[in-house]
Amino acid sequence: xxxxxxxxxxxxxxxxxxxxxxxxxxxxxxxxxxxxxxxxxxxxxxxxxxxxxxxxxxxxxxxxxxxxxxxxxxxxxxxxxxxxxxxxxxxxxxxxxxxxxxxxxxxxxxxxxxxxxxxxxxxxxxxxxxxxxxxxxxxxxxxxxxxxxxxxxxxxxxxxxxxxxxxxxxxxxxxxxxxxxxxxxxxxxxxxxxxxxxxxxxxxxxxxxxxxxxxxxxxxxx
Length: 222
Prior knowledge:
Elements: H1 2-16, H2 27-50, H3 61-76, H4 86-104, E1 116-117, E2 123-124, H5 128-136, H6 149-171, H7 181-186, H8 195-212, H9 214-219
Antiparallel strand pairs: 1-2
């Protein structure tokens, strides 16, 4: 589409010069093409960002999807056709409905404990692991504005449960099981500090405090 718009003057010159037997695009058609290009430009940019191989991309997916949803919603809801043509708005509405009904929902709920698969193993909404990846990325750690506030508490609780589960798993490791034979002969299990239990308690205390102080943290943009 970009190439067509770029080459339009040259194509018009060939048509008007009689070298090509075709009908030139009228001004309204050119306007629609230009508007459609602008409508699709954010999708192209998002795709380009997700093609990167020198930086993490999974964690940026929730934000990019929210941004695309916001753009489509705005374009689909425009009532003044002096701003965009009716044809462009129709395309935007179709894309927005497909986005909401068949892909990522209405954005009122983003974090789903269970997920739904459609035909061809297509996710309806984002997998919760993708939301967790965004939470663990310093660029998106506050989850605003792409995760509703009610869902943020679910994300924090889910990450806490993962950390507690990992800490609990470590407490089941037998003390000294990774020592070599020489070390086992010199060290008794009673002399080995059980750091896993300490780690589990520390993790629980830390995140309990964080969850308790969420209103304060949000009010200070922390």
